[in-house]
Amino acid sequence: MRFTKRKHSCVWLEKDGRRLVIDPGGFSEDDAAIGADAILVTHEHVDHFNEGRLRAGLDADPAVGLWAPRSVTDLMVAAYPGRVHTVGHGDTFTAAGFDVQVHGELHAVIHPDIPRIANSGYLVDGSVFHPGDALTVPEAPVDTLMLPVMAPWSRLADVIDYLREVRPRRAYDVHDALLTDLARPVYDGLLGSLGRAEHGRLAPGESLEL
Q1: Which candidate, 174, 165, 163, 147, places its Cα nearest to that of 197?
Q2: How many beta carbons lie within 10 A of that of residue 179, not counting itself?
Q3: Which among 28, 85, 138, 181 could disulfide-bond with 7, CB atoms 3.0 to 4.6 Å apart, if both were Cys?
Q4: What backbone torsions phi and psi does residue 51 show, to the nearest 5 degrees?
Q5: Does residue 183 contact residue 151 with C-beta atoms inside 8 Å?
Q6: CB 53, CB 27: distance < 8 Å
Q7: DSSP labels for 94-134?
Q8: Which of 176, 166, 119, 120 is nearest to 145 (CA)?
Q9: What is the pLDDT of residue 106?
Q10: Are 6 and 203 in contact (CB under 8 A)?
Q11: pLDDT tens, residue by residue, 27-43
C-alpha cells in the first residue's frame, strides 16, 4: 500500500492502481479528491469535509463512492444517488478494493459548551487507522496510525498517551495544518522519545510504501 500525505488531515492510500482518499477537507489541496476511486470522510467539520472538493472528486468519475457519517451524507446523497453511503461504528465495507472497518462514534470534546458530533475512524485493510478528530482506540491491532498531532481539542500529553494506548508499529502526523514550523521539532522530539512507536512526518505530497 502506498501512503501519500496531503495537507492537514487528508491522506491518499493506493494499491493495485486504485486510490482511497480520506478527509479531503477545506485545509487540503483543491484537487485532493481528484483521481479518487473512493472517498471517506470522518466528520462534518470544514477542515475534513469540503463540499466543493468532494463534488470535484465525485464528478470526475461516476464510479466513485463516498462513505461518511450521516451529517455528511445527508448533504450529498440527493446529488449522487446510489453513490453515497452512511456509516457508523461497527460497520464494515469494501471501497475501491480496500477493506474498511469503522471505529468510534463521537468527535473529541472541544469544550463542554460545544455539542459533540459524529466522528468515524477508519481502519483500512486491517492495518492503517485514521481516527479523524478523536482519540479512538480501535478494537483491533493497528500497524500504521495516522496521528492527529495538533488540534483545539487536544494537548500533546493526550496525543502521547493515545499513541501509547494504540501501540502501532509506526505513526505519521496528520491534522497538522495549524502546527508552526517552530513547533514541529518540539513535537517530533517528544513524540519520538515518549510515544513508544516509530514516529515520522511527511510533507504534503510526499509518499512512502507501507
Answers
A1: 163
A2: 17
A3: 28
A4: -60, -40
A5: no
A6: no
A7: EETTEEEEEE--BPPPS-TTS---B--EEEETTTEEE--SS
A8: 166
A9: 98
A10: no
A11: 999 999 999 999 999 99
* pLDDT tens readout for residues 46-72: 999 999 999 999 999 999 999 999 999
- Distance CA(189)–CA(58), nearest Å, equals 39
In order of 68, 128, 156, 165, the CA distances from 84 in angstroms are 8, 23, 35, 33
Q: Which residues contact 70 (CB under 8 A, 6 or more apart)?
A: 86, 88, 118
Q: Round the CA-based radius of gyration of the chain to a whole number and report it.
A: 16
CB 65 within 8 A of CB 84: yes
Upper half-sphere CA count for residue 203 (Cβ side, 13 Å): 1
pLDDT for 174: 98
Which residues are CB-neighbours of 172 under 8 A, at least 6 positions away? Answer: 3, 5, 144, 145, 146, 147, 199, 200, 201, 202
162 vs 172: CA distance, rounded Å = 13
Residue 118 grid coordinates: 459524529
59 to 6, 47, 54, 55: CA distances (angstroms): 20, 21, 8, 6
Cell of 8: 492537514
pLDDT of residue 80: 98
